[in-house]
Write a structure and sequence with these properties.
The chain has two domains: about 425 residues, no CATH class; about 140 residues, no CATH class. It is about 50% helix and about 10% strand. The strands form five sheets. The protein has a four-stranded mixed sheet with strand order 7-10-12-11. Strands 1-6 form a two-stranded antiparallel sheet. The N and C termini lie far apart (about 60 Å).
Length: about 600
């Protein structure tokens, strides 16, 4: 992950500094990245009835994008919202609010809706990450535009990146990673007598780190860890260069840390101590580990992928971060041996191995079975912050490591002198290496991200009919009022209508109760929400007693409900019968079943 490093060996030797200028080939590379990213998201464009395969995650991020747009136009607190989890509200800084995407995309969200904004965000994350690595490779490490383009392609569109992009915008938004590394490891111009700059790169680093915190804090942590491991590896490989550059690099990091700390002081204090903060995580992070066999397997979202093997080797479809296939790994091994004399290559190889091992979790799995081998992850599993990192995501560090190694090898082959390249014995070398690269990358060709059907927003909500039934200060209760991990109809309706109404529940992380900050998914459970969720899951209608009816009224009062709305459920009829047993007959209004509970709640 640490590419723009002190390793400017080729440029220092040649004594020239390259600057990229806007050229047609460079624009063509970027256009190619955009076209590929657009094609990968094509199954959802113009389809409001489809979501990417992890539907609950997309609903979450659509809502976050809609909230950011509302915060911009309404000048609301972007770190907090009362539109969900009524009457408690949600600490958005303590969740993956992706304000770094939502704020600049606010015009798109306001004009075209949250689904289009989500699609644009996915395209931007994939193509933007690939472009950022392409620019860095061209500026710092390779002469060949082809080498940089292939390296950027791997960094932006590896199976792990595509898997994350369909669900986790905060993990796919890695376009600032090359920028941060470039600012940390700024090389001195060849022949320069003045010492390298510290203040300017340091201040810029602090600004970029701050922005990355509003894209995804987890990526920021992975960058810091990977940069640290890389620096140690480079210091071991070239101690003289490390001693010479250590003061400047440390100075830039120190300046950047001060700037970022000043800018992030309030947001982080709000995250960890503000209303709705929580402690820990609602799941055990160490359970999300990768199988050792996954590194040579084929991911689902590739031309040769299937749905059976990856399910055994990764914790879920969004964490297929290590499915590089045997070809790319063998190619990387050959490159490492071939270019081992370069300190950069040794440091990259060491960094990749360390994070690959960490992704295996506390106890290594192989082909779906636990082995007796302890994983190095257990050495860091209890450390602060690291205990919240899902082990499977450590493998994402291997993506740019492999992309850089590939770019270095292609550049080495392309930079052969013309006279040498025309020799009969030199031509097969280029052809063989081109064939090896093609054989390694073609099986990793991504396919359009899979989608699943979703019930559309009922006209009662989409066309604002609800406004006639919901006075100020009251809420719309969607059935079932989801209070844990899963698809939340209220959250989808809220996102697609621009947070037009307030609702209880939702899909987020919050405290168990006002007095217990331990983390849990969603709002604290209410008896009625648990009852309706159970019916929605099983389709079984339980006996309803007067106690259940009184509890339903008490829960509706707690939620400040005005209407209860049901639309588009798999077990819709059992749920309807259950709600009618609790609240009385429903009215069908504009494609939804509606219970006006204002008289019940008072």
């Amino acid at each position: 992950m640490s590419v723009g490093t002190v390793e400017r060996e080729a440029e220092v030797r040649t004594g020239r500094r390259r600057r990229l200028r806007p050229r047609t080939p460079d624009l063509a590379v970027v256009a190619g990245y955009l076209a590929l990213a657009s094609w990968l998201t094509s199954r959802q464009w113009g389809r409001p009835d489809r979501l990417f395969h992890q539907a609950g995650d997309q609903i979450l991020f659509e809502w976050m994008l809609a909230h950011a747009a509302r915060a911009v136009t309404g000048l609301e607190n972007p770190l907090w919202s009362e539109a969900l989890n009524a009457p408690g509200g949600v600490n958005l800084m303590a969740n993956t609010s992706v304000l770094g995407l939502g704020v600049p995309l606010a015009p798109v969200t306001l004009l075209f809706g949250s689904q289009v904004a989500f699609g644009v965000a996915v395209v931007g994350c994939l193509a933007g990450t690939a472009t950022a690595w392409y620019v860095l490779l061209r500026r710092r490490l390779v002469e060949s535009r082809l080498a940089a383009a292939l390296g950027g392609l791997v960094c932006g569109f590896a199976p792990g990146m595509v898997a994350q992009a369909g669900s986790h915008l905060h993990m796919a938004a890695q376009f600032l990673v090359p920028v941060m590394l470039a600012l940390v490891f700024v090389p001195a111009p060849a022949g320069a007598t003045a010492p390298p700059q510290v203040w300017r790169p340091g201040v810029l680093l602090g600004l970029v780190v701050t922005y990355q915190a509003f894209l995804g804090e987890e990526v920021l942590l992975l960058v810091a860890l990977a940069a640290g491991v890389f620096v140690v590896g480079y210091a071991l490989a070239d101690r003289a260069a490390a001693r010479r550059l250590a003061p400047v690099t440390a100075g830039r990091i120190a300046v950047g840390a001060v700037v970022a700390a000043a800018l992030l002081a309030y947001p982080l204090s709000f995250q960890f101590f503000g209303p709705g903060h929580y402690r820990g995580m609602p799941f055990y992070a160490y359970g999300f580990q990768l199988d050792a066999a996954s590194f040579t397997a084929t991911a689902r979202q590739t031309v040769f992928g299937d749905h059976r093997l990856p399910a055994l080797l990764a914790p879920n479809a969004t964490e297929e971060n290590s499915f590089f296939g045997p070809g790319l790994l063998v190619l990387a091994l050959v490159v490492a041996v071939w270019l081992w004399r370069r300190p950069l290559v040794r440091a990259l190889a060491g960094c990749g191995v360390v994070f690959a091992l960490l992704s295996l979790g506390p106890q290594v799995r192989l082909d779906g079975a636990l082995t007796q081998l302890p994983g190095p992850y257990r050495l860091i599993a209890e450390l602060p912050l690291l205990d919240h990192v899902v082990p499977a995501r450590f493998a994402l560090v291997c993506v740019p490591v492999l992309g850089i190694l590939l770019a270095l090898s292609v550049d080495r082959v392309c930079r052969q002198p013309v006279a040498t390249a025309l020799r009969p014995d030199a031509v097969p070398v280029r052809l063989l290496w081109a064939g090896a690269v093609a054989a390694a990358l073609l099986p990793l060709t991504p396919t359009p991200i899979r989608t699943v059907p979703v019930w559309q927003v009922p006209a009662f909500v989409a066309e604002d009919t609800w406004r006639a039934y919901v006075p100020a200060g009251r809420t719309v209760v969607a059935v079932p009022p989801v209070t844990n991990a899963g698809q939340s109809p209220a959250m989808l309706w809220s996102a697609r209508t621009g947070l037009a109404f307030t609702a209880p529940g939702g899909f987020f992380i919050g405290p168990r109760s006002p007095d217990d900050p331990a983390a849990r998914w969603g709002a604290p459970d209410r008896p009625t929400s648990l009852l309706l969720r159970r019916v929605a899951d099983t389709g079984e209608v339980p006996p309803i007693s007067d106690t259940d009816r009184r509890q339903a009224v008490a829960d509706l009062r707690h939620w400040r409900a005005a209407v209860v709305v049901q639309a588009g459920l798999h077990h819709g009829d059992p749920v309807r019968r259950t709600v009618e047993a609790l609240l009385g007959p429903a009215r069908e209004i504009d494609g939804a079943l509606v219970w006006d509970v204002r008289s019940l709640v008072g």
